[in-house]
Specification:
It contains 23 helices and 15 strands. With 573 residues, it is α/β, with parallel strands linked by helices. The strands form 4 sheets. The chain has a 6-stranded mixed sheet, with helices on both faces. It has a 5-stranded parallel sheet with strand order 6-5-7-8-9, with helices on both faces. The radius of gyration is 26 Å and the shape is globular.
Amino acid sequence: MTESAPVDPTSTEGWKKLDSIAADFTPDLRGWFDSAPGRAEQYTFQAADLTVDLSKGLVTEDVLAALLQVAKDTGVAERFQAMLSGEHINVTEDRAVLHTALRRPKATEGLVPAAPLTVDGQDVDADVHATLDKVYAFASQVRDGSWTGVTGKRIETVVNIGIGGSDLGPVMVYEALKPYVQAGLEARFVSNIDPADIYEKTVDLDPETTLFIVASKTFGTLETLTNARLARQWLWERLGLTDAADDEKTNAVAKHFVAVSTALDKVEAFGIDPENAFGFWDWVGGRYSVDSAIGTSVIVAIGQENWEQFLAGFHAIDEHVRTTPLEQNVPVLMGLLNVWYTNFLGAQSHAVLPYTQYLHRFAAYLQQLTMESNGKRVRWDGSPVTTETGEVFWGEPGTNGQHAFYQLIHQGTRLIPADFITVANPARPLKDETGDGKGVAPGTDVHTLFLANFFAQTKALAFGKSADEVRAEGTTDEGIVAARTFPGNKPTTSILAPELTPSVLGQLIALYEHIVFTEGTIWGIDSFDQWGVELGKQLALQVTPAVEGDQAALDAQDASTKALIAKYLELRK
């Protein structure tokens, strides 16, 4: 371990000031806006293409000053620089944390310092771009039809087999960038070990035009390798090779499977040509790896040029964080507000509400990024945390969420900070040519209707609706008045981009990566390990013999697990 013990945030003057403020904090967004006409401008910031409005957050000058002091006292800026330089800030695994290196431009482009990034004797820039170039070359072959299946037909469907970071990132990015997918190509994603997943993803595919990408760094992940074997079995069955000679089977696998892995011996034993394996490094955590070779399926779908713009978006936010003072540093400010809501105002969850359907998997992606990173109970030196840590991230696209769970955010008893994300220019603009004869005129731009909801929701959450306003509308029954009153003062952040380009998507992902970093640094936790994931995996292997009917293994289980497995065995046909 190379890092010193974390600073206890509760011991800092900034934290003590926040405690004092929180003791009698009464939010009043209506009053704050009335008394400070420049509030919106004061709390609106720019990060690359993202306009970020924090003015409807529960923040005052005193709160922000104290939060910034906490950031300085806990060394947020210094630790960020340590991460960029390759120090082993993932202390429990003694590793550097270099997902930011995945998107550093080539030095020849003149966009990075002249000195290459060398960490632990590794020329990181050279290695990253060598792997990228290899993936680009492969993707180009698939896209132009020069890579064919075993029968000579070009590839039409790429099926990514992975789980966790090897699935959540690629599927989210693919869905977000569907307007950029090459015609005649499709990507599908298999992750769950439930056999229904791979069945549904392959049932209607043509094996002659299908390519599988098996994404597993160690080529040993239980779910991924089980699904890979099922996919191989499917290929042989559909091609009529079940009883074929081994070399014929292996040849088919070599033409229809590639890997994202560094375990070349296991890759080759599976039947994949090691030349068609694309690697990544220990300093890339799975949930931070979407912009590595893990994104191969997406690179095939959208092509090199769009992927390079995607990486450039990440890098733009990395540079914003590196060069911008904390007072205007957007991910830092958003992370600080999350600390304020979590540690001082009692918030336990955080909603992410994209008003663009193409981001419908963004909240699911952020669940792993945020909760696997900051769901920790000990600090990076092994000592217990001194604060609450982590938030439950969740959400759905607007306006779907409005008809589902917004009621709880508006009028429930829980404080739920929410991030609203949208774009000014839709990828698929449409007009309602007939209208409804009421409020929607013929020829109405549907995106305008959509965005009206975006703006209205944050306004309603901030300012609510008073009892007097309800009465002024003609309601006289006081019971109904109470039901129609909205308290307001529900904190939101609004994020607006010109359009959902590959670059903007990269910016959004990097934004949240660095929000996570800010919170983790303040809490003193290692945001880059995930030991909590491992216990369930280990126990699953131990329980498997019992589920298969081994009586000794069944007898070794606790009473509840034993009874549940026994009932399962009774019910299983």
